[in-house]
Write a structure and sequence with these properties.
heterodimer, A: alpha+beta, OB fold (Dihydrolipoamide Acetyltransferase, E2P), five-stranded mixed β-barrel, B: five-stranded mixed β-barrel, three-stranded antiparallel β-sheet, 29% helix, globular
Chain lengths: 315, 199
């Protein structure tokens, strides 16, 4: 598909305008760069645009994803967003706010609509009004971000926050998993994450897959495991908050145990001793083949002996 | 459906009476390390089982005195599971080594079958011993958890019996292989449930 000259003109105008808000720009430079990419190298306009934005923001503090695409964004449901870096409008209710792990993040949590929940992040530099838990909003010009196979949304300086009078109902995409915790993976318990901002990779022997060897780390607590109900096996991930509740061990207590035993793996061993072989009933949000656990209860529901006997005798 | 060797197969809930009758094991592909399955008499395949009961005795049955091969008898209301742990199940072996019997235990692991040689060294009788290798876990439980397992296993065994359609190739194979109908295992379910009633 070739790009028409008029489309190119519009793109140049728009791009000059939006870039002008952030960095020093020169319209003729933008025109040359875009024309070169589109005409000479047959790069699609969207890609060309992105490449120009990246080149202008490269040596600045401006996050390229803060620079919105011209034209209208589509109204979508949060779980219908499929691609990375898609510009959209959503109408959502704030379901949960978490403590930001980094000073650059002003707010992080879950928002949801009829299609379910998704994580959102807002950054200090965007200087946005803070969202309130339980309030519904129309969020215009948010951008999607793919992280570990999941789509999140990021608010940015182009985002418009409009409070809604009506309440957005959050659809339930949680599932119940009941069975026996059959194993706890080796990268469970007390783990070390990469200290780089916005990076949450787990360090392996002090190394981050993205950022290389690290002198520092941030401790976290989690359980990756398998719940076996006799018919199916489910992969589960339990985050710090739920792990603390489930095990009765706080992150700082876990750090103490690791220090006393001189082994970070001591925490996982403790979890294994306490939990493997236990019946659990879990509320989970499915997440690309995994299940993120929100709530737990010990035990599973079973039919009582009498009704099972009635059933057996009727065969 | 492709299944890699890394697929975690669920630990079937099965009573000893059915498990010990399930002497036929097979692999679904010729590929190296493709998983092995036990054909349960109710017509369902099992790559692993997850069972609970009372361990009444543990014995080192290794023929070589320098090695250790522990055999535990895990007793339930319908019969006894044999659980073998050696060097490849170090965690389970260390639990069994120091275990005070009797003790309620839960075990999850892979299934093994073997045909013992008879006294005169001839392999003439058809006895096949089915046993469990505690590859996943072997942990102590309390009576409540063991009872929960019996109710769960009763329900899942009934599910298998009620779902056994002779058109299903595994069900047909089980009927042909063992000469029994899935419904015959209703009686062990009743035995197990009645053991809970008495308590």
């Amino acid at each position: 598909m070739s790009t028409q000259a008029s489309e190119l003109d519009t793109a140049v105008d728009e791009l000059t305008e939006v870039l002008d808000d952030h960095v020093d720009v020169d319209e003729s430079d933008i025109r040359d760069e875009l024309t070169n990419l589109v005409k000479e190298y047959q790069v699609p306009l969207d890609e060309a645009r992105r490449s120009v934005i990246n080149s202008y923001t490269e040596d600045t503090d401006v996050d390229p994803s803060d620079i919105s695409r011209g034209g209208e964004d589509a109204d979508v449901l949060v779980n219908d967003i499929e691609k990375d870096e898609e510009w959209v409008n959503v109408e959502v209710k704030v379901d949960d706010l978490w403590d930001p792990r980094s000073d650059s993040i002003s707010q992080v949590g879950l928002v949801g609509d009829d299609s379910g929940r998704t994580k959102f992040t807002a950054f200090e530099t965007s200087d946005l009004a803070l969202l309130e838990e339980g309030q519904s909003y129309r969020l215009e010009n948010v951008v999607s971000e793919e992280y570990e196979g999941d789509i999140n949304i990021k608010l940015n300086s182009q985002t418009e926050i409009i409070e809604l009078d009506e309440d957005v109902e959050i659809g339930d995409n949680t599932v119940t998993i009941a069975g026996i915790l059959a194993s706890i993976a080796s990268d469970s318990g007390l783990i070390k994450r990469c200290p780089e901002e916005e990076c949450t990779y787990v360090l392996s022997e002090g190394r981050c897959d993205v950022h290389g060897p690290q002198d520092e780390h941030e401790f976290d607590l989690r359980i990756k495991g398998i719940v076996d109900n006799g018919v199916e096996a489910h992969d589960i991930i339990i985050n710090q908050e739920v792990t603390e509740e489930l095990t009765g061990m706080s992150l700082s207590e876990a750090q103490e145990i690791a220090k006393d035993k001189l082994e970070i793996t001591a925490v996982r061993e403790q979890f294994k001793d306490d939990l493997v072989g236990q019946y659990l009933t879990l509320q989970a949000t499915p997440y690309k083949g995994n299940n993120m656990i929100n709530e737990f209860e010990f035990g599973v529901e079973t039919d009582d002996v009498d009704s099972l006997l009635v059933r057996a005798r009727s065969i | 459906m492709s299944e890699s060797q890394y697929t975690y197969h669920p630990g079937r809930r099965v009573f000893a009476a059915e498990f010990n009758d399930g002497t036929h094991t097979y692999s679904e592909s010729d590929e190296d390390r493709s998983p092995n399955f036990q054909l349960l008499p109710t017509g369902v395949r099992a790559n692993r089982v997850l069972v609970m009961g009372t361990i009444t005795e543990v014995e080192d049955v290794a023929s070589d005195p320098d090695t250790e091969f522990l055999r535990a008898r895990l007793v339930g209301p319908t019969g006894t599971f044999l659980v073998y742990a050696g060097q490849y199940q170090p965690e389970a072996a260390s639990v069994l080594r120091d275990l005070e019997t009797p003790s309620y235990m839960a075990v999850s692991g892979k299934i093994r079958t073997y045909e013992p040689e008879s006294e005169d060294g001839e392999d003439d009788d058809d006895t096949t011993i089915v046993s469990i290798r505690p590859d996943d876990f072997l942990v102590e439980v309390d009576a409540d958890r063991r009872d929960m397992w019996i109710r769960e296993t009763a329900a899942q065994t009934l599910d298998r019996i009620e779902g056994s359609d002779s058109e299903n190739p595994l069900v047909a194979k089980a009927i042909d292989q063992y000469g029994t109908q899935p419904a015959e295992y209703t009686s062990c379910v009743i035995d197990a449930l009645e053991s809970l009633e008495v308590e």
